Fold these 2 entries.
Entry 1:
Amino acid sequence: MSGVGRHVTVLLREAVDALAVRDDGVYVDGTFGRGGHSRAVLASLGKSGRLIALDRDPQAIAAGREMIDDPRFELVHAPFSDLGAVLDELEVGEIDGVLLDLGVSSPQLDDAARGMSFRFDAPLDMRMDTSRGQAVAQWLAEASVAQITEVLREYGEERFAHAIAKAIAVARTGGAVATTGQLAALVEKAVRTREPGQHPATRSFQALRIFINQELTELSRVLPVAVERLAAGGRLVVISFHSLEDRIVKRFMRDESRPPQLPSRLPLRAVDLPAPRLALVGRARRPDEDEVAANPRARSAVMRVAQRQGMRA
Ligand SMILES: C[S@@+](CC[C@H](N)C(=O)[O-])C[C@H]1O[C@@H](n2cnc3c(N)ncnc32)[C@H](O)[C@@H]1O
C-alpha cells in the first residue's frame, strides 16, 4: 500500500525521554507521520494513560489506523493548529505532554505522486493535506511575480528568487508550470551559482512546500495552545528541521520562560510580576554522528524542550 511507506524516526529515544511519560498521563503527538514516536510513547504509558495523535495527511491517518489498535490511542485527522478544538471535542482538559516532530515524513517525500520532490517528475502538488487547499501548480498559475519572489526569498532564502519568479511567469504564458520536472528545469536555468552538494531547486521546492502548507503559521499557532493546555510539570518537546522553524520555537520558549520585560522605572517588585509559564529543560539537542550516518534526513534536526511551571492540581 503506497500510504504505508517507511519513515525513520529522528531522535526517537531522546524525544520520548524528554516527555518524561507518566503511567497515567495524557499525551499529544501532533505529528503522527508513521507513528514512530507514538508507538514509543504507548510503550512507556501505563494502562490508564492516553495518547492523542494528530496528522493533517490523510495517508498518515490511514497508515496509522492499520498500524495501531490500542484502546489508549486516538488518531485524529487535523492540523495541529486545531489542537484546542480537538481536545475540546475529545473532552480532554489538561495534558501532560506535547510532541511536535515538524516538517515532512519520508513517505511524503518519497511518493512521487505527492509532488514534493524534484527527484521524480510528477504533478506539482506538495500539499500535506491532500483533502483541501490549493496545490502549488494552482498557486503558481495565479500568483504575481512579486508574490512568488517573496515566498522564495522568505521561506527558501533563495538569492535568485526574482529571476526564478520571472522565469515562472514567462513559462506560464506558454502553458501551466504543472509538474515538478518543469519547475526544477526552470529553476536550474535561473540559478546562476550552485551550492555544493545541493540541487539548484532545493531552496525553491522547500520554500513552496513551507508556503503552501503554511508551516510556520501552523507552528506559531500551536505553541501557545500547547502551553495553555499543559498541566504543571507537563513537557513541550519540539523537533525542527529548518532554521525558520527553530527560530520560532527558540523565541517562544525563551519569551515564555522569563518574566515579562517591563520598563525599570515602574514601581514593581519581582514577586509582583506573573511567573513565567515555562522553564527550559536542558539545551537544544541534535542527533549524534551515528544517527546522522544511519539517517541523513536527521542532519538538520534540533530538539528543544520546556516544562510547564506551577503546582499540579
Ligand atoms: C517528520 S513527520 C513525523 C514522523 C513521526 N514522528 C514518526 O516517527 O513517524 C511529520 C508529520 O507531521 C505532519 N504534519 C506536519 N505539519 C503538520 C500540521 N501543521 N498539522 C498536523 N500534521 C502535520 C506531516 O503530515 C507528517 O506526517
Entry 2:
Amino acid sequence: MSEFAELAAKAGALDAADELAAARKQFVLDEVVYLDGNSLGALPANVPGRVEDVVRRQWGGLRIRSWDESGWWTAPERIGDRIAPLVGAAPGQIVVGDSTSVNVFKAVVAAVRMANPVVGGGGRDEILVDATTFPTDGYIAESAARMTGCAPRPVTPAQVPGALSGRTAAVLLNHVDYRTGRLHDLPALTAAVHAAGAYAVWDLCHSAGALPVGLDEHGVDLAVGCTYKYLNGGPGSPAYLYVRSDLQDRFDSPLPGWNSHAEPFGMRSDFAPAAGALRGRVGTPDILSMLALEAALDVWEGVSIEAVRAKSLALTDFFLECVGAYVPDGRVESVTPVAHAERGSQVALRCEGAGDVMKALIERGVVGDFRHPDVLRFGFTPLYVGFADVERAARVLAEVLGEARRR
Ligand SMILES: Cc1ncc(COP(=O)(O)O)c(C=O)c1O
C-alpha cells in the first residue's frame, strides 16, 4: 500500500470511530477543508433562523417589549451561564458583552485595584504581561498600567515565576499562544501568581471550546475570551468576562456604565455597582450578535469538552503524522509543541514563502491562515473537522510545496 493509501485508510478508520462525527451536520459547510475555526468558527445551521426570528418577531413585532418578554435585558448573564460549563465555571460568574480588548481593560484595571485596595497604597505597581501575547492585550495592558500608575513588564509565560515579586499587582496571560498553538500551564502559573499575592487574568480566546479550562478548579481570578473562534458565535460576536464569585464584591470596574448599576432604571447620578458578575456589564448589549451567539451555543448540548479535547489532540497528532509522511524534510518546521500537555488545538508550521503557500492552499480548498512573517496556521475544530480533512490538508500542502520547489 502506498503511503497515501495507508494514511487515507487510517483517516477512514479514525472517522468511523469518531464519537463527535455527527456534530458536523449541525454546521453550514461545503467541500472546503476549513482549518480556520481558530479565527472565525463556521456557521451553525440553526443561527440564521434564530436571527430572523429575533429581527422579525422580537424586534419587528414586539419592539420594545422584547427587552423583558424576549429576555433581551438578561441576555449577557444568561448566555454567560451557557458558556460557563465550557470553561469550568459555576453559574453567576460570566457576563457576555463588548470585545475581548475591552474586557482585557476591565479585568486588568480591576485586578490592579484589587491588589492595591487602599488608594495610593499597597505598593504593587507592576503588571506582568505575556510578551508573546496577541498584540491587543499588550497595548491595553500598557495603557491600563499608565492609568493605574503601574509599570508594564513584558515577560514570557515561562519567565513569570521568576519575575513575580511583592511589587506585582496583576499578570495577564494567554492560555494558548495564538501564533504557535502552545498551551500554557494555567494551574501552575495561577498558583505562582497567587503565592506572590497578585491576581491572574487569563485570555481564553484560543482555548475556550477547544479544551477544558477549569477556571473554578484552578482558582483563576479573572478571565476574558472571544466567542467567534471555537464557540462559533459569528464575526464580531461579543466577548465575555469571568469574575470569580468571591472576588465580585471587590471588582471595581474602570467602565461603570448604567448596565453595571445596582438599579439601572433608577437613573441615579451616583454609581452603585450591581451585585455579582453583572457589574462587569457596561452599556446596552449588542442584542443581534448576542442572540446569534446564544443560538450558536446550542451545538454544545450533550457534548463533553473532554471528548472535544481528546479529538482535538487526535486531529493534531494525525496532521503532524501526515505532514511528516508527505512533506519532504526541511520544507516546514512545526513550532507547535509535540507534548499534549503543551498543545492547544492548532498546528503552526514555519515555512519559507508562507504567505504564498497559504494562498495556494486556499485556492485548492484548504483554508488555514498566514501569520507574519513565516507561519502557516491550521486550526482544528473538533465539532466539524474530520480525519479525512486532515489527511487531505497535508496532501495538498505537500503538492503545493512540491510544485513551488519545481518552479
Ligand atoms: C488571544 C486573543 N486576544 C484578543 C483578541 C482580540 O479580540 P477582540 O478583537 O475581540 O478584541 C484576539 C483576536 O483574535 C486573540 O486571538
